[in-house]
What we know:
Elements: E1 4-5, E2 10-14, H1 20-27, E3 35-40, E4 50-53, H2 59-68, H3 70-75, E5 79-85, E6 90-94, E7 99-103, H4 106-115, H5 138-147, E8 151-153
Antiparallel strand pairs: 1-2, 2-7, 3-4, 3-5, 4-8, 5-6, 6-7
Amino acid sequence: MPAADARSQGIVAGVPGSDPEVFLRLSRCLEEPLFLLYVLHTCRGEAETGRYQSPELSFRDLEAFVDEFRPLLCADGRFDLWAYSPEQKATVVWDRHNLLYAYGPLDRYATELRSLGFGQGIPEVPAPHTHHYRSELDALAGKLIDRFDWVYSPLRPEDEQ
């Protein structure tokens, strides 16, 4: 099983190949309604850096969003993506280093991760490493910003990486 995050009672796992299925599978453990938080760390003209919170979403809405923006989500390092269930006070975070942080129903998350072939370990981010901000994905990033009537707020100090 991936490492437990001792600081806040969560699970940390890597995202092999930037595969959004890992994020989706853990997000299925969350109760609706859901909210997405798109944390834009590095902009290339599509929007101001900051936090973009979606309106209430169903899991199907979340799946449709991931399917629509899969090329960006898999290949660009300008953002983090969070799914949150206010009902459970539970969160799944996919960060720009391809790590997942999951807080809430830990047993359910662990079951999902095991079903995907994950085992015990400590995920690591290579050092040094680089982030790719792909110009060919700029139009899709702009479309993502236009996808919802997001509620904007500035980046917080803890968002800085």
